[in-house]
Amino acid sequence: QLPDGRVLMPIWGAQKLGERWQMGTLESKNEGKTWGSYRQIAYDPQAGCRPDNGFNETDIAELSDNTLLAILRQQRVGTHAGPCDHYAEPSDYFYRAISHDLGKSWSKPGRIDLIGTSPCLHLSPNGTLMLAYRDSPQVATLEKGFYERPPEGAHYGLAIRISRDEGRTWIDQLDLHDPKGLKYSAQQQPGYPAMVNLTDGKILVVFFSKQIQDGKSSVYLVENVLAPTGAANASR
Predict the structure, then answer these.
(1) How far is the C-alpha of 35 from the C-alpha of 18, rounded, in Å?
(2) pLDDT in tens, 156-174
(3) Separation of alpha carbons 44 and 114, rounded Å
C-alpha cells in the first residue's frame, strides 16, 4: 500500500493465447475491493520459444521519495525465439525496474548479476533493503540448445542479500536453514520466502520446505528469525 492509499498488486501472464508472459501491476483505490489500471513493467514478445517464457514472479518495495523498486524473475528473456528445449522452471538472471512516481510509470527493466527465482523484497527495521530468493544454479548459460547443468556441489536453497544502491547490486549472502537439517538439491528445494519486522527489532522469515523420503514428498512451513546483525538465530 502506497502513501496515497493506492494498493499495487504485481501480476504476470499472457494477455492473449500464445503470447509470451509479461509483468505489470493492477491498482486498487478502495483497499482491494476492485482492481484496474493495469500498468506494464516488462515484456519481451520474442522471449524464448514457449508461451510461458518471459517475465513472471515479481516483488515491489517502496524505497524513498516516491521511488518503487521491482525485482523480476524471467525465463529466456532476450534469447529471441530459441533454442527450444524441455525444462522445468529454470532459474535465470533477475531483472530490475524503478518507478519514480509511485508506480504510474516504470524504467526499462535491466538485468542484474544475480540468478534465482521467487524474489521477496523487504526493508529491515533500520531501512536496509533486503532480498530473499530461491538460490538455485539450475540455469546459467545456453549450450548446444540446452541449459547447462549446474556444477557439482552447487548450492541449492534460500538466501538473503542486501543492497545499498537501490537493487543494482546485491551483497552479503546469508543462507536460510531448515530445522531438520535438510541438504537441498535440484529435486528437493524450499521456496517462496516472506518477511516481516517484529516488535523486538528482529525479522521473521517464513518459507516452505520439502522433504523426500522413500519416494514420497512432504511440504511444511519453516520460520527463521534474523537478529539485527542479519544472522539467523532460530528456526523451526
Answers:
(1) 25
(2) 889 999 999 999 999 999 9
(3) 19
